[in-house]
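Support request, please re-run this one:
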Amino acid sequence: MFDKLNKSKNPSYLFETNIIKKLQNKDYFIYIAHDPFPSNPRHFEENIAHFIFWHSRYNLGDKHYYKSPREFLEDLAVKLISKDQLDEIVEQKFSNVHYYFDEDTEKWYITDGVDMLYDEAFNLLDEAFDYLETEKDFYRNDEWSEQLSDEELMSIIKQNALIVPVYMYDHSGISLSMIPFSCRFDSGQVGWAYVIHKDIKKHYGEVNEKTLEDAKEALNFELNRYNDYINSDVYAINIYDNNNSDGYVIGDIYYEDVQQFLFSDEDDETLIQKIINYYL
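Re-run finished. Output below.
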């Protein structure tokens, strides 16, 4: 984010209490500070991943309306499942169904080989068949996701998306990671991050072992960015041009970008030239 300001308006008022490093030569005066008004990277950056988190005290991740992890898993599975996958689930559900003719009642019944599946009795086999097809359609459209276990839903999702659990450590600050933390008292799973295969194909051309790994790296990069944001580890650089009295404020600079300037042993002249070349 670039804002060109007139030096006379003193853009330093935004950052003068958060200065970390000062640099100066005959042409420029530069200081690096914490950005007091960082933008949420989940809003202003083009992200490939989705972050779905729950926490009783913090509003984290992307905005969503899922009341529970279970509701999220059901909804995502419904959105991602292919027709072939759904056909297979329906087939498995009704794989043991048989039609039974009772000679005493002279009626047809639908059974799983042991018990009657429905209370209805039918005069004709075609009636029983039509009834079962209606039940299959109802199961296909409304019931299947509710009846599958979390593991079964996750299996469907993993066939159509890269999804990883996200863990949070909450102790003197918040830290998010795709790897569990060792402290079981102050940490635990807070939700999931995922990238659907359709978006992987859009960004990388196809879905294979390499592009899945690339997508995972991108997901981790986005998570690290978001980590910096929620912990206010975002920086701004003020650049004053002594020759024309112009001032520039470059905000939303993340740690991995600014560390090359913060911890360098190079002299001011060299660092100033690098900053000018990089940002202006």
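The longest strand covers residues 161-170. The two ends are 12 Å apart (CA to CA).
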